Amino acid sequence: MLPTVIVPIRGALAALDACLAALDRSLDAGAVVLLADDASGDPRAAGLLSGWCAGTRLAARHLRGERPRGLPAACNAAFAEAGESDVVLLAPDVLPAGEWLSAFAAAARDAGDVASLSAWSNDGEICGFPQFCEPSPPPADPAELQRAAVAGRTRVPAQLPAAAGPAVLLRREALRRFGDFDAVTFRHLEQALADWCRRADAMGWRHLLCESVFVARRSAESAPVTPDQAEDLARLLARWPDQHERMARFILEDPLRSARRALQESLDELARTGPQGDLFGRSSP
């Protein structure tokens, strides 16, 4: 069974439109896509989403709340709608390509005590490639980079302190055991996901890099932290006081260095049999 794709909906309609088009191109007919809409106030978004659901060959549904309750609550509704499948949380500004969903499914199969799998991305925080914790421009050919990710995966997947980046698979078994997001405490997805990961950690489950999946992401301008986001972060740190320390230690140690090297070597191998230049738009000498 393929995972259900869940797209939490927020603004930036141009990026969302491109994301939906990329889903149409990269997924087989009948793949399940749920649009988790937290009662978006932009009337253009409702028209875009309902029109896409009506015209796509995918099994797409627009789940719109009656009133805004925060994206964690919208995602929880989508988790319930997804039934027994694993779910992939996909940011609405990504451009997935190639066999990315099948690669996610293969990585999740027989994953044992793994709660989450996080994909590579050019803007993927700790799962960033080619830069670690720094955004890069989206690659010229995301599908080619997806092929390189499948070919370049290592035998021992790297463990993460938490799920990260714009494409994260949550295993259904973990959702059954630890519940869904704490939508009462958190209104923002980043903190709700971090809290969910820590709950899984406390029960001995792991979070891994999914080396066989790469998703391109449009580079977005950083927005200032809003007061309610700051409140969410304060609640997260009150519950898990060592959260910043854990992440800082991971960044300092950079255990993904060898995995990035393997992906780069896979890209180099593809470049030897393809056109000159690289997939991030830099010309060869």
UniProtKB/TrEMBL annotation:
Entry protein name: Glycosyltransferase
MF terms (GO), sorted A to Z: glycosyltransferase activity
Domain of life: Bacteria
All residue ranges annotated as the Glycosyltransferase 2-like domain in the record: 4-118
Keywords linked to the UniProt accession: Glycosyltransferase, Transferase
Keyword Nucleus: no
Family: Belongs to the glycosyltransferase 2 family.
SUPFAM superfamilies from the UniProt entry: Nucleotide-diphospho-sugar transferases
Matches recorded under InterPro entries: Glyco_trans_2-like (IPR001173), Nucleotide-diphossugar_trans (IPR029044)
Keyword Transferase: yes
